[in-house]
């Protein structure tokens, strides 16, 4: 396999990172998250693109478009995690290995956040490490690639 292509897809309200409930989500902005991932991807010889959307349909379109052009998806579906069967079905349809990430530990919070409808069609879920949740997901992809090389 050549260069590994990774799409980082951020769901609704994550554009407000840095100012949105900082006690829960931290003070790092989305631009800083993407920058950090971009730096690591470059170091690790990966090609990284990112997209944030507040719209379910746009996220689904992005997953459809990723088919054939992306090897891995790092996905924070945000609130869609808990109820979007449409995003779950899109993930199942495109069959791109996906890692679900959450900044907060969804299991420590409200009951409705403890259930993910998307995680069952993902390779795995990383939750509760703040921005490092994304970094750990990228690291997991790197480890997988090293094993497969
Ligand atoms: C989140 C957790 C979700 O429950 C919430 O709706 C979000 C962010 C997280 O990254 O911790 O918007 O996905």
Can you describe what's shown?
With 149 residues, this protein is of the alpha/beta class. It has one domain: Rossmann fold. The chain is built from 5 helices and 5 strands. The chain has a 5-stranded parallel sheet with strand order 2-1-3-4-5, with helices on both faces. The longest helix has 17 residues, at 132-148. It starts with a strand and ends with a helix. The mean pLDDT is 96. Bound molecules: 1,3,4-trihydroxy-5-OXO-cyclohexanecarboxylic acid (DQA). The site of 1,3,4-trihydroxy-5-OXO-cyclohexanecarboxylic acid has 10 residues, from loops. 1,3,4-trihydroxy-5-OXO-cyclohexanecarboxylic acid binds at residues 13, 76, 78-79, 81, 102-104, 106, 113.
SSE map:
Blueprint (H helix, E strand, L loop, with lengths): L3 E7 L11 H4 L4 H14 L2 E7 L3 H11 L5 E5 L8 H10 L3 E5 L21 E4 L4 H17 L1
Parallel strand pairs: 1-2, 1-3, 3-4, 4-5
Helix pairs in contact: 3-4
This protein binds 1,3,4-trihydroxy-5-OXO-cyclohexanecarboxylic acid.
The site of 1,3,4-trihydroxy-5-OXO-cyclohexanecarboxylic acid has 10 residues, from loops.
């Amino acid at each position: 396999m050549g260069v590994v292509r990774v799409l980082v897809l951020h769901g609704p309200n994550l554009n407000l990172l840095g100012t949105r409930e900082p006690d829960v989500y931290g003070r790092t902005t989305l631009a800083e998250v993407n920058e950090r991932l971009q730096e690591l991807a470059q170091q690790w010889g990966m090609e990284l693109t990112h997209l944030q959307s507040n719209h379910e349909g746009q996220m689904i379109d992005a997953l459809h478009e990723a088919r054939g052009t992306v090897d891995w998806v790092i996905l924070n579906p945000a609130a869609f995690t808990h109820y979007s069967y449409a995003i779950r079905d899109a993930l199942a349809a495109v069959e791109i290995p996906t890692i679900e990430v959450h900044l907060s530990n969804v299991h420590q919070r409200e009951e409705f956040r403890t259930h993910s409808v998307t995680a069952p069609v993902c390779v795995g879920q990383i939750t509760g490490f703040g921005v490092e949740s994304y970094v750990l997901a990228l690291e997991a992809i790197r480890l997988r690639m090293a094993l497969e090389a």
